[in-house]
Amino acid sequence: MSGPERVEGRDKVTGSARYADDRRPPGCVYACPVPATVARGAVTAVDGAAALADPQVLTVLTHLDAPRLAHADDPTLAVLQSARVAHRGQYVALAVATTLEAAEQAAAAVRVTYAAEPHDVVLTEGHPGVYAPEQANGGHPADRVRGDFDAAWAAAEVRVDATYRTPPLHNHPMEPHAATAWWEGDRLTVHDSSQGTAEVQRVLAALFGLGRSQVLAVSEHVGGGFGCKGTPRPHVVLAAMAARVVGRPVRLALPRAHLAAVVGHRAPTVQRVRLAAGGDGRIAGLAQEILTRCSTLKEFVEQAAVPARVMYRSPASRTTHRVVRQDVPAPSWMRAPGEAPGMFALESAMDELALACDVDPVELRLRNEPGTEPDSGLPFSSRHLAECLREGARRFGWERRGPAGHAEGRLLIGTGVAASTYPVLIGPASAEVRADADGTFVVRVNATDIGTGARTVLAVIAAEVLAVPVDRVRAEIGRSDLPYGGVAGGSSGTSSWGWAVHAAASALARRLAEGGPVPAEGLSAGADTRELVGQGTEYARHAFGAQFAEVQVDRDTGEVRLRRLLGVFAAGRILNPRTARSQLLGGMVMGASMALLEESAMDPEFGDHAERDLAAYHVAVNADVPDVQAYWVEEHDPHVSPMGSKGIGEIGIVGTAAAVANAVHHATGVRVRELPIGVRALLGRTGG
């Protein structure tokens, strides 16, 4: 695969890359939090005597003696500020000791007494607390109505009416959340496992009553995030709080078993999809109605119906979101929030419509291609979904597919397809590019590399503008004292930071073109894109793709195994094919994992997610994804950025789960509408 290798690759494989929990400032001590063991109620007493009996233990902080914080925009960050318990696993105390073992033992020795109250954690379609929010995540209107869906439904020759369910899902990056914090007078430094240090800096400054320049947040290397590190989490606030109390640097790395409760998760969804169509499969009416939940602490509504506003031509459409506040951990971002669960339902329903109309599933999607974005009426800046479907079908060998799968002994073999989309999101950023006297260049921007190759692609952008080899460009990223860059999330990083780098490098190239030697101190140029990023918004800007899956199902045991997975994407200009392919493959693997393995159950009695480690919460490993291929069609979109590129971090997961589910139906004739697709859904229904 062409394209430069990751510039930080050697550091990572040799172990010289330093992560948040690798910091060892002099005098560093350790913190371990104490999670609540009730799902709703109040702390009535905290007994830390047994913990404090150990001379290695420096303090046990509770809501009674922890430093007071200013108002938190995010209520999940108001840690140790109140006796109230909003969900099981919420932190109610923090032990600090001179060794990690002593801190863990002290946390286990703290005795907390509660006044427990009845809790509500079971999401049901008839829940009395269901309400209509004003917005879904991302600022999307919760409801959109276009045309007369009821009339289209009544007049339809063919109708699909089905309900699909997705369980709570957890991000589980390889590196758990961690922070190392210390104070020097009224200045705070934190090394945090975060997807964006600018937001960490802003939040900590506000909570501790500091100016932003008094906080330095660093995320030099981050071992994955998938959204759960996209906003500051309680651990970084606790580390800073403890460091202020004990007057020493504090390291706090969360145990994996804590992550399900305190760093966000994908909320469960119940989705009713209705498609009204003619006998030829052309859609006359589309409705997607979402039910999900959020916590009592804050509202977060998975925008699962939003992709339906983009995908297919339909004279009538109704997309709605409903939510219930419950005594559960606060949901948050997880890779492709909204699009991933929403497109599982929509693309499964499209497969059901294709079957009902006796139309090939690829052809059905082509017949329903819109000329403009259906809900907004805006022209697409570029839309090459049809090319993705056709090229994917060609590469996958779709023409050999029959109306039903085939058998190989006791294995039933089937194939499926689904389409995918993800919006183009771009935020303002600033950057500086410097030419040094030795002929090298330095890019400075507060980007964050969470394993996606950000350092490399930013160097690629600058090198292309400056017309120099990539190995002469070095990127400085991951510090809040660098020129502003937003979060590494929403597939927006390269477009947002890259636009600023492109503009700064262009300004520097003009200065260099004036001639003369580069001075010893170097020659710099900067750029700020705040006034530029609004350009192109008169277009509907999205990436698109198509995923094809082949599965085998054991007719005797119901076991499902993935045999092949192939995706073709239209995501603008691909700036570094090597790292782009890696991201697309990673997204598809995560989508396959969502389809077949990942599941989290809420225990109704204890109000807790039962699967809290990687032994119980299964994610895909190499054996689960034997043949995965990613391709793209040539696309350069001048309306999205000067580079013509779109985000690629999330579109790989969108559509994959539906492609796998559709393949399972093709193999078995069994329509599974609830993820993950497992033995329980298939055993006894596959002819065995």
Give an account of the 3D structure.
This protein folds into 3 domains: 11-118 and 172-262, Aldehyde Oxidoreductase, domain 4, CATH 3.30.365; 135-168 and 266-424 and 538-682, Aldehyde oxidase/xanthine dehydrogenase, molybdopterin binding domain (Aldehyde Oxidoreductase, domain 4, 2-Layer Sandwich), CATH 3.30.365.10; 427-528, Aldehyde oxidase/xanthine dehydrogenase, molybdopterin binding domain (Aldehyde Oxidoreductase, domain 4, 2-Layer Sandwich). Helices cover 24% and strands 25% of the residues. The chain has 15 helices and 28 strands. α8 (339-357) runs parallel beside α14 (656-668) and α11 (454-466) runs parallel beside α12 (493-513). The chain is globular and about 75 Å long. The relative contact order is 0.13.
Descriptive tags:
Aldehyde Oxidoreductase, domain 4, five-stranded mixed beta sheet, 688 residues, seven-stranded mixed beta sheet, alpha+beta, 28 strands, globular
How many strands appear in the DSSP assignment? 28
Query: Uncertain regions: pLDDT < 50 for 5+ in a row?
Result: none
CATH topology (fold) name of the largest domain: Aldehyde Oxidoreductase, domain 4
Number of domains: 3
- Rg calc: 26 Å
Fraction of helical residues = 10-25%
